Amino acid sequence: MTEKAPNMDKRMEGFRSLSPPVWRASTVLFDSIDDFTTRKERVFDGYTYGVTGTPTTRALEERIAHLEGARFCVTAPSGQSALCQIALALLGAGDHVLIADSAYGPLRTFAQDYLQRFGVICETYDPTAGAEIAQRLKPNTRLIFMESPGSLTMEMQDIPAIVQAAKAAGVLTVLDNSWASPLGFQGVAAGVDLVVQAASKWFGGHSDLLLGSIATDSRTLYEKLRTAQSVLGQAVSPDDCFLALRGLDTFALRYTHQCASALTLAQRLASHASVDSVLFPPRPGDPGHARWAASFQGGGCVLSFVPKLKSTEEVHRFFDALTVFQIGASWGGVHSLAAYYPPAEQAKRSYCQVTGGIVRLSIGVEPAQALASDIEQALRMAGQPT
Length: 386
Ligand SMILES: Cc1ncc(COP(=O)(O)O)c(C=O)c1O
Fold this sequence. Notes:
Radius of gyration: 22 Å
Bound molecules: pyridoxal-5'-phosphate
């Protein structure tokens, strides 16, 4: 076979579309052997090999960087891989890292079961801690992982105080900002060094892709992350980047609607006789409300509540009775989801204040009234003997 790859530059003449093209590539072609032998010089600003991206990836990275108010963005195959990539790019044996006790579970597991094996000293900290975090810093502390509000139990962190303490000690900060997204909180402007999004959630918006992103203002950190992406082979599918770019077109609309519905539900549940507590910082009365109101511009579509369900059978009856909510993990999509985390999960954590089983809801675009009625009828059914 002697055919060369088609010259797409020529094919593009006279054509424009509203959709970004999906550029797929492992191989990147070079115009000359000189360009080829010097390709490593362009790993940060150009194209060298599919693993560090194609123009479709770059289009998404630029768009996310713009949303985050950051100079740089590196995408990753999932939100979890973005968190792990940061750790692998920046930590080494003997380093100490602090992780919020309320952070996404698989990050804590990665620290415990993998980073520690490679000699990184990993500790969790009380997610409600403020300036006193300084007392947990050691001469070898390199990173503080934050997530606010925390996965599941929704503790609001004092991001300004933690950033200030970290900066004073020369420690880098990472914020998993997936819940609020850049529309709800601008992490880079708040001084956070690395802001992570599980782009599988809000950005994708349709529960059908896995993607992560890391935004930063630091050229040095950007280069370390891009290098780690290359060396670790953290390739991101351009098709998924396309889906995320399309998701971003409707993101602000979805965000506004879903956050408003989540607040409506949180308020209804807070006064429900079968509900022990609601965990949702945008709701006045939530323990984290003051912190949320002080620095966030928007909410989230995920809320948790502790139901007064007395037995596993009642929990099962509640979930089996749901008709609008579907049972599933993850969140941020247009379809509402419900998931359950039994008390034993909370008991494993060092600083968790919640002792009961938690129902976590991801609020989609269905009418808030239909969602509230669904939960209320399922709570009624749960209490009725079969
Ligand atoms: C807060 C948070 N961070 C990170 C992740 C991981 O994202 P992904 O599912 O894309 O790996 C999740 C997923 O549930 C999450 O809820």
